[in-house]
Amino acid sequence: MITIEMNENKLFDSYNQILEKLSREKPSKVKIIYKNGCKENRRLSRYNENPEHIFMYGCKRRRYGYVITPYGKQIKEWQTVKISELIPENVKWERSWKRVLAMLEKSGLWENMADEIRNVLDIGYEKLHQARKEDWKKYPELNYEEQREKRIQEIKKIDSRLVEKSKDTGTEYTISNFWLYSMPAKIKTMYWGKPYRANKIKENIANSLKNKVECHEYQDGARINYYDVTFGYRPEYNRAWYNEEYRNCGNGHYYIALNATHALFLEDD
Question: Do the bridges between strand 239-246 and strand 2-5 make them parallel or antiparallel, or are there none, so unpaired?
Fold first, then answer.
């Protein structure tokens, strides 16, 4: 956390200190403390159309907001600005997958995936992103199958562990979950609603995983939020799933369960 005191006599200098710490691409989370003692959590970035100005995002807005200049009335009301330091993408990626791996090692779930994560952590962020760029490349002079084969061979040159062979046909493909592993892991706490409804479900899940007993749990979306929530555990495979589907609909957000309380996002459908 970087703390910048707003000097009323040198407001332009304080403004520039904030600018230096902001990125144009990704907004920074900040805490603004006003002279009247009020505190506010907001997001700031450099303004795309003029990077010498600050852009403040509106509350709960991802795109819209307004420009803050060193001469405006609003900034004169600021006393202190605390800026969360941006974590480099490669560091964020490594931390997130190490966290997933630690949860899997403790719960014992998804042993094959834990092995894959150890591999991708060893391969590293840079190589994964080189391979991801290669997977997007087009070779207009080649037909579809030749392009696919060309991309596979180029990815193998980056790291052969990123390619696996089908046992049935011998065809080579990028490893399962290749695209998932190339991005920071998205981990969430499973949500079952208010404690008086959720505690029994959480207890059942924890006991099932501990005793390796098959488990299926369901919570109607009318009781908690917009989603019908389900959990399933298959002890013969030692795998568990967590889904949030729109009410009375077969589409939603799909996860694998990492333990009795947390899940890893896989895809939207």
Answer: unpaired
Domain locations in the chain? 2-83, 90-181, 187-268
pTM, entire model? 0.76
Structure token pair of residue 171:
């065809």
> Cα separations (Å) of 237 from 100, 172, 178, 244?
19, 25, 22, 22
The token duo for 255 is: 């996860």
**The tokens of 190 are what?**
């499973």
Tens of pLDDT along the chain (269 residues) come to 789 988 878 888 999 998 988 877 788 899 999 999 999 999 999 998 888 899 999 988 888 899 998 888 888 899 999 998 778 889 999 999 999 999 999 999 999 999 999 999 999 999 999 999 999 999 999 999 999 999 999 999 999 999 999 888 889 999 989 999 999 999 999 999 888 878 999 999 999 999 999 999 998 876 666 789 999 999 999 999 999 998 877 789 999 999 999 999 999 98
CB count within 10 Å of CB 119 equals 14
Residue with tokens 């290749």: 178
Residues with Cβ within 8 Å of 133's Cβ and at least 6 positions away in sequence, in order, are none
